[in-house]
Amino acid sequence: MLAENAAFNNAEVRKVPVNIPKGHISFHHCRTYHGSGYNLSDRPRRAISLHLQDRTNQWRPFELSSGDLVVYNNDVLVGKDENGNPDYNDADFCPVLWEDPR
């Protein structure tokens, strides 16, 4: 699946293992392919994911060759804007964490 997705995006897959100790954090660009291997323990794997964006980020349609629009995971969580599109300014799911004091 990774190779197919990368090929679709004209990207190259270069696997680099990153061992993250328990309780630590990883930051990466949103276009970085990432994932984890199988959970081999008898305990559930827990994770928190934060997606940061600037205030000007907004939904834009992207059509696949099939004619379908791409749906990003967060598109179904946020509210809708006045045009019925995903609203990335939805304060419940996209709160402002920092404002430039200028």
What is the compact description of this entry?
With 102 residues, this protein is mostly loops.
**Can you give the helix content as a percent range?**
under 10%
Structure classification? little secondary structure
Kindly, what is the distance between the CA atoms of the first and last residues, rounded to a whole number of angstroms? 45 Å
What is the 3D form? extended
In total, the number of strands is 0
Radius of gyration: 17 Å
* Low-pLDDT residue spans: none
Order of helices and strands: H
- Our count of helices gives 1
Largest sheet: none
- Tell me what portion of residues adopts beta-strand conformation: under 5%
Q: Could you tell me the mean pLDDT?
A: 88
Word description of this protein:
This protein is low in regular secondary structure and 102 residues long. 7% of the residues lie in helices and 0% in strands. It contains one helix and no strands. The protein starts with a helix and ends in a 94-residue tail after the last helix. The model has no long low-confidence stretch (mean pLDDT 88).
Tag the structure with descriptive keywords.
single chain, about 100 residues, little secondary structure
List the helices and strands and how they pair.
Layout: H1 2-8
